[in-house]
Amino acid sequence: MMDFFLQLVITGIVIGSIYSLLALGFTLIYKATGVVNFAQGELLLVGAYICLQFTVGYKVPFIFSFLLTLVFMFFFGFLIEKIFLRKMIGEPIISIIMLTIGLSSVLKSVVQLFWGTSTRTFPQIFPEEPIAVMDLQISYVYLASIVAVAVFLLLFTVFFKKTRVGVAMRAVASDQQAALSMGINVKRIFALSWAIAAIVSTVGGVFLGNINGINTSLSHFGLMVFPVVILGGLDSIGGAIIAGLIIGVLENLAGGYIDPLIGGGAKEVFPFVVMILVMMIRPYGLFGTADVEKV
To answer: Cβ–Cβ contacts within 10 Å for residue 261, how many?
Structure first.
């Protein structure tokens, strides 16, 4: 019984770490621009298919395919902001949100046009034999996912805290007018936010593709980001990371223990139940900042 519990927790940590990456991109865009990005899941989808195309279509070794995909998606996210979002600066937030919803539909349609809807798989990249840790069997792809996500989260943490560009992004997120007065190019920071969001989505998409295969349903992970960012707090990068792990583990435990009792469905719904409960107690999330308005 304990082995089953630990297996669910480990799998939940793997999925939760990917949620953390996606939530990082989501929170970064929100903090820098005030935009809720409904196309996060489609960025994940595009990145996964691009990497698959490099690996399978062009026979590029996986590690180089992965790096090429990250470069491609960096510029792809940059162009999305420059072509579509920059023209919306100063427009009502609801208009920008609707634009991201439309963008998500367009990106998914483009993916279906080029690659269809059938499930595709990466070639065997990691060893099939799992690693035995006491009585637990942990696959190499799970370990690789956790390590890769941890490395990227560490890199971005250092980037935000130690580099000039990272500090500029934090300044823009804190106060755009003050950042402008200090000579920071806010438009460039907006574009960089989308570029980084595209990169972190791609990392998640590639490793999810190695675990489960790739099809258009992969984009639903973008929807699962919402309970994570609400739980962590829309404006908290650290909260997004911690909340991703919490949601991943809770979701997997619900799937392992509750789904067999009710015939399924708890795993998909449970994160949103947690989100609602948290919002009833702390509307700004576990680590978010409460906005106080003076009247």
So the answer is: 8
Query: What is the mean pLDDT of the segment spanning 216-239?
Result: 83
- Domain of 176 in residue numbering reads as 15-215
Distance CA 246, CA 239 (A): 10
- Tally of domains in the chain: 1
Q: DSSP assignment, residue 57?
A: I
- The pTM score is 0.87
Question: Contact, 7 vs 191, CB < 8 A?
Answer: no
pLDDT of 289 reads 67
Q: Give the pLDDT band of residue 34 (cuts 50, 70, 90).
A: confident
- Among 138, 114, 111, 139, smallest CA distance to 127 is for 139
The residue among 290, 282, 239, 278 whose CA lies nearest residue 24 is 239
Is position 194 within any domain?
yes
Residue 125, domain member (yes or no): yes
**Tokens standing for 282?**
């702390």
Do the domain assignments include residue 265?
A: no
Task: Quickly count helices (H) and strands (E) in the chain.
Answer: 12, 2
Work out the average pLDDT over 225-247: 84
As a whole-number percent, the residues of the chain with pLDDT over 70 amount to 96
Torsions phi, psi for 185 (to 5 deg): -80, 95
163, part of any domain? yes
Q: In whole angstroms, what is the distance from residue 274 CA to residue 293 CA?
A: 27
